Amino acid sequence: MRARLLIAGTAAALVAAVLALGGVLRQGTATAAGDVLPTAVAAELEKGFAAGDTQAEIAGLQAELRANRGNVKALATLGLAYLQRVRETGDASYYPKADGVLHEALRLAPNDLISLAGLGQLALARHQFRSALAIGLRAKRVSPTTAGVYGIVGDADIELGRYRAAFAAFDRMASIKPSVASYARVSYARELRGDVPGAERAMALAASAAVGEKEAFAWTHVQLGLLELSVGHPLAALPHLRLALEAFPGYPFGLDAMAQAQAALGHLHDALGYEQAAVDRVPLPQYVGYLGDLEHVLGNERAAKRQYALIGVIERLLAANGVRNDLDIALFDVDHGISLRHALGLARKGHEERPSIVGDDVLGWALARNGQCRAALPWSERSLRLGTKDALKYFHRGFIAACLGDRAGAREWYASALALNPHFSLLWAPVARKGALS
């Protein structure tokens, strides 16, 4: 199983999947819209972004704009619809389209909150976190009593390692408007601080708030399942994941999470089927990578290599559409022993863009895999400074200890990783099991 806190590693996933970091686009932006726009406009957003309707909504908005290019509402809504298409297809070519119409709307109406919210989400999706923070702060100046702007600010602060400011922003968001978006961010903040039961309680509130909203309801139950998986409880995860897929059949994020649960239960062929279905719907890099890893552990090396090669194609397409993905590429390459010196350079660059505990962990891991374990140690220690319960980070710490000749320390960290989640990684859990016994 992939570590839950790294699931949002790719920018496509950040827009597509993770309310905790970037918002469920439809729910998050519609919530912001509903705070400042007439009910009819918010209802239009909800209608247009219903599953399967987005292309028709885009065509209708484009027709409106051909008749009146100065229609700010149509421009902003079209920008959000383009972002929704990334969610539905994984096609990053919609990012430049969204960028163009949202900036056009903002030129016509510099204080339009929906355009600002859309640009904030777009910057987060492209891993342009400093830009996202600036946009979020601008939106906050326009409307300091709108809950959604604090989500953008807090999301950017999280990725920039500004945790105190991020948690304050999430608390402010929840105090203004309890909602799926705010509860989910509170859940993530608690998870980062190692309070998994508290994270589950907050996400359960998000799930209750999402009743009647098919995708948001499914998403929250996927997150509840992933929280159970993160602490080694795959059987407890299954009811949440089944509920998500019943509410939203074919939901790619539910399929991916179910693959992880099945793998944790030892049902690798079932896991392969679920992950292939997720990739067939939305070929996000982390889905393709996990599919490759499943093929690898099943001994299907040719199929694994095909999936790994596909990741390179996807990453190049993301980069061509403005996504800064250095940290994610570095993590994949380091995990798979690909061009390790080059991967270290990418990890350093990625850490500059994302100086968070995720960035700390990936940089430390890249240094360790390059044999620079003394330099890796402080980064690994920093990655754990919030008290986050993350088995993969524990494993990295143990690997570094072993590299430094601290066999007792390595055994302790490996044992901690396995005690928290014995299925934390298809590739590295077996290494931890062997190391814990040496």
Protein architecture, described:
The protein has 438 residues and is mainly α. It has 2 domains: 4-313, Tetratricopeptide repeat domain (Serine Threonine Protein Phosphatase 5, Tetratricopeptide repeat), CATH 1.25.40; 314-437, Tetratricopeptide repeat domain (Serine Threonine Protein Phosphatase 5, Tetratricopeptide repeat, Alpha Horseshoe). It has helices at residues 11-16, 25-36, 39-48, 54-67, 72-89, 94-108, 113-125, 129-142, 147-159, 163-176, 180-192, 196-209, 214-230, 234-247, 252-264, 268-281, 285-297, 301-320, 326-335, 340-353, 357-369, 373-383, 391-403, 407-420, 429-437. α7 runs antiparallel to α8 (129-142) and α10 packs antiparallel against α11 (180-192). It is globular. Residues 3-49 have low confidence and may be disordered.
Distance between the termini: 24 Å
| Rg (CA only) | 21 Å
Describe the sheet with the most strands.
none
- Using the alpha-carbon principal axes, give the shape: globular
> How much helical structure, as a percent, in the residues?
over 70%
CATH topology of the largest domain: Serine Threonine Protein Phosphatase 5, Tetratricopeptide repeat
List keywords for this structure.
438 residues; mainly alpha; Serine Threonine Protein Phosphatase 5, Tetratricopeptide repeat; 25 helices; 76% helix; disordered N terminus
Task: List the SSEs and their pairings.
Blueprint: H1 11-16, H2 25-36, H3 39-48, H4 54-67, H5 72-89, H6 94-108, H7 113-125, H8 129-142, H9 147-159, H10 163-176, H11 180-192, H12 196-209, H13 214-230, H14 234-247, H15 252-264, H16 268-281, H17 285-297, H18 301-320, H19 326-335, H20 340-353, H21 357-369, H22 373-383, H23 391-403, H24 407-420, H25 429-437
